[in-house]
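Thread title: Can someone regenerate the structure for this chain?

I was given the following input by a collaborator and told the matching structure tokens would be attached. They weren't. Posting the sequence so someone can regenerate them.
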Amino acid sequence: MPNHRPSQPAIAFLTLLALGLSACSTGFYKKWADKETYAILRKKASKVPNAGQSFLDISVPPPVRMEELRKSMQTEEFLGDRAFIEKDARKISLAEALNFAVHRNRTYLTQKETVYQTALGLTLTRQQYSPIFAGTASGTKASTVSLAGVNNLVRSSTQTTTSGLGVSGLTRTGAQIATNLTTNFVRFLTGGGKDNGLSALGFSLTQPLLSGAGYLSASEALTQSERNVLYAIRTFAQYRKAFAVDIASQYFGVIQSRETARNAYLAFKAFDFVVARETAMQKENAPGSTKSSVFRLVQSRIVFERAWYSAIRDYEQNLDDLKVNLGLPVTARFVLDYRDKDALQIIDTPGTLDEAITVMLNSRLDILNLRDQVEDTSRKVLIAKQQVLPTVNALVNYNILDNPDRQDFALKPGNRNSSMGFNADLNLNQKPERNVLRASIIAEQQARRAADLAEENARSDVRTGFRDLQLARKQYELARIGMDISTQRLEVEESFNAEGLGTAINLVDAQRDMNTTRNLMVSTTINHTLVRLRLWRDMGVLFIEKDGGWVDVLNKEQPPGE
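Best answer:
Regenerated them for you:
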């Protein structure tokens, strides 16, 4: 009965091959992929404004070293029994927060990896248009035992070895070229048979002449892959701008919530003092002081105390949310650098609205992507038109064989065969191609509408940004006027109350308005800055540094009068 098992030479070959492959560690493949992929990213990024050469690095960031940050030595009374949350806290500035975010924010890192994977896919597409080598080998030993006569067993064995080495490639004209060297050798180990072998060197060429022919159709996969990498880099560069503004908004939002807690505490302490004074005056039967006014002030103090506790809770929650977005442990203790708040200035963006829209149309990377994608759909329409044509392929085959009477695998140029011809498909069923063509035309129309809609939305965003900036300045001016009025009003009411001339309700209202205007001064100052940053983002001129900080291109804007 037949018994098949791999031959010893084949086992040795496969063992050596396995050892060779195992010698290539994961680190080797990683470095190999990174070298090729980063080369693509560097070249493509050079065509994208503010993309930089290193912002797409997907290396794992080192562990957080909070001890490198400055230490806050202050203890804030307004945090009450929650003051321990800032004990031994580290100070983080806006620049440091942005630096943490661009290296540790989980969504941000995923966006970078998506760009990397797009470029990694391009390496495989490019390979399809370059020589691709392939090698195969197999060895089998077959044994047969048969009964001949009485108690006479006859054993015969055959060893078969097959190997092949080839190279193939797809040209940008659509031609498929392949070269292959094969050997097949059979040795009869027993049984008196004659060894024989066959070797051949073959070459084949298939060139489309109608459907699928030409650079446009044959290179579409490569063309689209190349452009997809550029689109991915642009998308990420635009995302970085929005990301930096979002982190800044959250950073200043934490500062604002901390100021809200401080103001709530000041309001509560002010009422605490007033209640104590009013209680003492009521006990002395001072004119104008009644139990009703004392009760009203006590109730208001309770309201402000509750608001203070809520404000502290909101501050802690907002701070934890910021930690998560910065990629820092929520258990880490840090406090934001108030110098960033103190440095905020009310600065208007120079130029007119029409100039801002013109800048936007030439700078917004997402708009550029949509315009280029219209070109992609137009190109696909041309390709779909070509696919309707019949399929006609020119075929060329050429083979060099060995001498069948020899056993040393020597190729003989004289032993050769060749063929030339063509195959054709008249493509009589054109409904699939018809549908593809029609769908391509519709896709082109949709891409044009999408680009037009995006431009209109971007114009609307810039117009909204200009209006919001004007509104933010007015709100700031009104808050400043309101602060002056509230300060004077509170001073008057406190004086009246001390002299027994005022009323509790007027003092409560004055203190409440004072607390509101304090919060408004902080919020309107921060809001004006964030509105300006969002306008820069929508205009496409918010250039981002490596650490996530921004660099405006509007001539280093300065406050009015400087």
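The chain is about 55% helix and 20% strand.
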